[in-house]
Amino acid sequence: MTGVGYDALLWLSFGGPEGPDDVMPFLENVTRGRGVPRERLLEVAEHYQHFGGVSPINKLNRDAMAAVEKQLSAAGMDLPVHFGNRNWHPMVEDTLAALTASGARRVLVFPTSAYGGYSACRQYDEDIERARAAAGPDAPELVKIRQFFDHPLFVSAVADGLRAAHASLGDVPGVRTVFTAHSVPESADLASGPPGEGGRRYSRQIAEAARLVAAEAGITEYDVVWQSRSGPPQVPWLEPDIVDHIDALHASGVRGVVVSPIGFVSDHLEVIWDLDNEAAERAAEHGMAFARAATAGSDPRFAELVVELIREHTHGVPPRKLSPFPAAGCTVNGAPCALGCCEPAKRPAR
Question: Is 124 annotated in some ligand binding site?
């Protein structure tokens, strides 16, 4: 069985440095055009150097790709998987150039984000549009796979990670469950989704995913907070921050916390630094028990999920979803989901 109308799968991700000399060039790619002070870049670079200048994200993606390839092969599907990044090698432009040279005409794209919003969805559309422009008139058609935050396999994988984290704390009483996701500017969240929807698709999807996971894990009380803010202090971002929230939990008498990074699909640097280091250290300072739940990407069901999303396109498999949110994110050649959907903020003229 072939890829049924598709020549390949392009695994599209953020990218990360793979050695000390890569760190600053990578950060410069990430922040290009945003006017981020060099002092801030050096501060973030220290986080990477703490891990030898290597982000785990590329290895995690390669491991997930291998698992998907294995499942595709077992299903008799001949659909090679190719890796491309926005900010570091292998760059998506280079990957698409190679696919174009090989004669690929139609390619599925799996973006490594489960949600909507500018950074979580529309920026991947921009990556696709940019890579096709670089590849020239013979570039293949690129069909982006939909958002999957409410897919049963994603929800069950995150819920099992949450249960395991709670079990690791034993009999600590009154442990609080806290879901985290990457913070974004309030203006970006307000602009997320089609204009007629009223905005805040990103934060509403995060809240819905947390509700679904908590229900599956049998948890009735939980919080949704944010992490990894990177903007200037005068710009409002989604709050509260996870570290501030741990302070508030301690002040209210909570003796333990389990953190589930539901907004992320893998344990990359923002997870292991912001949660396993900063949040864990703050909890330890307060004498609070702390456990961090695994992300979905390390669970075997994640590869199963990706293959099922592929089969929606190759075999007409009906989409499975657990929320009333409309299925979104599936677009062609970098088009947005709708006119004005997740419109990027206009930067002030200099």
Answer: yes
The reported pTM is: 0.95
Annotated binding residue 102: no
Query: Is 55 assigned a ligand-binding role in the annotation?
Result: yes
Residue 341, domain member (yes or no): no
* 61-87 tens-digit pLDDT: 999 999 999 999 999 999 999 999 999
Q: How far is CA 39 from CA 25, 36, 44, 46, 143, in A?
A: 14, 8, 9, 11, 39
Q: Read off the pLDDT of residues 159-206 as tens digits, 9 standing for 90 and up.
A: 999 999 999 999 999 999 999 999 999 999 999 999 999 999 999 999
Together in a domain, 85 and 15: yes
Q: Indicate if 128 and 255 belong to the same structural domain.
A: no
Q: Is 270 annotated as a binding residue?
A: yes
Residue 345 is assigned to a structural domain of this protein: no
For the chain, the domain total comes to 2
